[in-house]
Amino acid sequence: MRPKRIILVRHGESEGNIDRSRYQTKQDFALQLTPTGIQQAKDAGLQIKELLDNEKVYAYLSPFFRTRETFQNIREAIGDNIAKAIEDPRIREQDWGHLRHPDDNKGIIEERDHFSTFYYRIPDGESGADVFDRVSSFFDTLHRDFEKVDYPENVLIVSHGLTMRLFLMRWFHWSVEEFESLHNPKNCQIIVMEKQTDNRYKLISELSKK
User: Fold this and answer.
1) Rounded CA gap, 151 and 137, in Å?
2) Which of 20, 60, 161, 195 is positioned for an S-S bond with 184, CB 3.0–4.6 A?
3) How many domains does the chain have?
4) Residue 210 lies in a domain
């Protein structure tokens, strides 16, 4: 009853990816795609269309603006394939708490990288472990959906770099050390998991190592 593929896509390049000062004046959830990010999403849509051909797909989206924009542009190529699309806040980006000066954010990132990406809790925000827990809760919904009689052959999840990496950690039972040895996916990088004959999934895409 499991789908043939689970396809994960990180959002396209956003305002915050190219200008860290935006985090001082605009909420993380409200950051939008750049023109480059829009084109990345359109290109990703064409690649996903090649994977799907005429098969249907059930899409889950982070509610952040940049992920919704990414899906809108992906949808131009796969609109006929989409059986259903829903937003789920549990696959949103790691929460940073509030607006901050870029220098403060830089210090937090450096401290987190030195301490542990998984265990370090951002002041007034979340740790990687917190995101792991809500992704685990999302799995409950995912597996219940798999049991629906008319569930399609494919899953598409449009989310964020760290969240995607934690999704894979949870699914494949990676250790904290394995998780922390890998980089986040790049903007609009497509990560594909394919079901094997034993009904388990194999990761057929690669994340770069640190």
Assistant:
1) 20
2) 161
3) 1
4) no
The residue assigned the tokens 């829903």 is: 86
* pTM check: above 0.85: yes
Q: At what angle do helices 65-78 and 35-52 cross, to 10 degrees?
A: 40
Concerning whether 114 is annotated as a catalytic residue, the answer is no
Q: Note whether residue 133 is domain-resident.
A: yes
Q: What is the per-residue pLDDT across 9-45, written as a single tens digit (0 to 9) for each? A: 999 999 999 998 999 999 999 999 999 999 999 999 9
11 flagged as catalytic? yes
Q: What is the CATH number of the domain that holds 177?
A: 3.40.50.1240
Contact 174, 164 (CB under 8 A): no
Over the stretch 146-205, which tens digit does the pLDDT of each residue have? 999 899 999 999 999 999 999 999 999 999 999 999 999 999 999 999 999 999 999 999
Question: Residues 13, 15, 93, 126: which is the catalytic one?
Answer: 93
User: Looking up tokens 């090649």, which residue turns up?
Assistant: 50
